[in-house]
Write a structure and sequence with these properties.
single chain, alpha+beta, four-stranded antiparallel sheet
């Protein structure tokens, strides 16, 4: 009788333990989902990603919409180690790319480009650790 009572207690504890082992959302998954939600809110679901050479930051930008001439495209830079957005910006009819490990090169053409315009006048260097520098 005591053995069957102990066996039923052990069975009950085993069922409680198994029932308590439901898959839960880990902190890492929560952060990943939170970052993905933030990106979707800021940029939409159609994005392009580009890591810097050391893969410590990622440039995330809205995909180019060729139907909308002169449309603004937003982009952000995310530090991969802690999923923090370190830079937000936008460009008009241009592009942005990594120049080196910590600098972005942004070309933005807000108005009509004249044939004799110097393309360097539309270029901005963005340091992800320092304020934006105009070159």
């Amino acid at each position: 009788m005591i053995i069957s009572h102990v066996a039923s207690i052990v069975s009950g504890l085993l069922l409680l333990t198994i029932g308590a082992c439901k898959p839960s959302l880990s902190n890492e998954n929560f952060v990943e989902q939170s970052v993905r939600h933030t990106i979707n809110v800021k940029l939409g679901k159609e994005t392009q990603l580009s890591n810097n050479p050391s893969a410590t930051y990622v440039l995330i930008q809205q995909k180019d919409d060729v139907k909308t001439v002169g449309a603004k495209r937003k982009f952000i830079v995310l530090r991969i180690s802690d999923s923090v957005i370190v830079h937000e910006d936008q460009l008009i009819r241009g592009n942005v790319k990594w120049k080196d490990d910590s600098t972005l090169e942004k070309f933005s053409f807000p108005g009509k480009v004249k044939p004799d315009d110097d393309p360097a006048g539309y270029k901005t260097l963005i340091s992800i650790d320092l304020p934006t520098l105009k070159q």
